[in-house]
Design a protein that fits this description.
Length: about 270
């Protein structure tokens, strides 16, 4: 029988938790598979991906900075990959063509709805940032029919360019200073500020005691953004670990048609992080 071989490609890649997550999914399903980390040179994603599939690889995950390269590499793209202009999961179609998908958006939505028990329908959602991560999650969030979606970014031209790709949707753009005086039910930090232990320049008073404060970055302790949310008594604090596991579960389901249980895996990873 053909060996099931999967991998995640990135640069850097040592930090990736994907192998342990996917091996835990395989254990649940009761199958054996290989899942490797592959470091690709910054200008070498396509060659690495081509070699991987030519050598019999079954599916690939793609992480920073190659999600755009993966988008160009595949033969076909799902609708959500097209909205994100980025691919984090490649599978092989029955006709042998490579299909690019993006599970980051369903990952965060699934974490918010199912794990945090927080509906997005009719809620006021604020998203901080206008980079690749935000573009990846916007469409699945909009599909939940929130009351409003507002984007704040330091570079407003970048936010405008992003919103212009989502024709037909009402997405508001505010500068950080203009957030003053507004309150939101869900605030998602989709900036990379937490990677540098920084806080996006949010004014005080935008959290309420019912607000879900969600940072896409995860780590051992609270990020600066979550510390601010805590100091303002936001109702729920969450980091991106749940999103990481949920996007991986969605990838696994694409490849295997098997939906893994995620909570125990997120809990185990949380313990390791602590
Ligand atoms: P990009 O480099 O494409 O964009 C970075 C964004 O962060 C820009 O909007 C930038 O604003 C903003 N930014 C950076 N530093 C600050 C700061 N100090 N204050 C305010 N804004 C800041 O990155 P990505 O969009 O690809 O990634 C964003 C984050 O999402 C990363 O930290 C990544 O780790 C995380 N992520 C987590 C996932 C998960 O599964 N948990 C999945 C995908 C991403 P400006 O345009 O004004 O410069």
């Amino acid at each position: 029988m053909k060996e099931l071989r999967y991998a995640v490609v990135g640069h850097p890649i040592e930090h990736s938790r994907s192998p342990e997550i996917h091996l835990a999914f395989a254990k649940q399903e009761g199958i054996e598979l290989r899942y490797e980390r592959i470091l690709a040179p910054l200008d070498g994603f396509k060659a690495v991906a081509k070699d991987f599939f030519e050598a019999g690889g079954s599916g690939l995950n793609i992480t920073l900075p190659f999600k755009g390269d993966a988008y160009e590499f595949v033969d076909e793209r799902t609708e959500r990959a097209q909205a994100a202009l980025a691919v984090n999961t490649i599978s092989i179609l029955p006709n042998g063509k490579l299909l690019g998908d993006n599970t980051d958006g369903v990952g965060i939505v699934s974490d918010i709805l199912n794990n945090l028990d927080c509906p997005l329908i009719a809620r006021r959602v604020l998203i901080l940032g206008a980079g690749g991560a935000v573009r990846g999650v916007l469409q699945p969030i909009l599909a939940q029919l929130p009351l409003s979606v507002t984007i704040a970014n330091r570079n407003l031209d970048r936010a405008k360019a992003l919103v212009s790709q989502f024709e037909g949707y009402q997405i508001d753009i505010l500068s950080y200073a203009e957030l003053a005086g507004h309150e939101f039910d869900v605030i998602i930090n989709g900036t990379s500020s937490s990677l540098h232990n920084e806080l996006p320049p949010i004014p005080k008073g935008i959290f309420t005691e019912k607000t879900l404060a969600y940072d896409m970055v995860y780590g051992a302790g609270l990020t600066e953004f979550l510390k601010r949310a805590q100091s303002e008594k936001a109702g729920i604090l969450a980091d991106g670990l749940g999103m990481l596991v949920e996007q991986a579960a969605a990838s696994y389901e694409i490849w295997r048609g098997y939906k893994p249980e995620t909570r125990s895996i997120t809990n185990a990873l949380r313990e390791q992080l602590a």
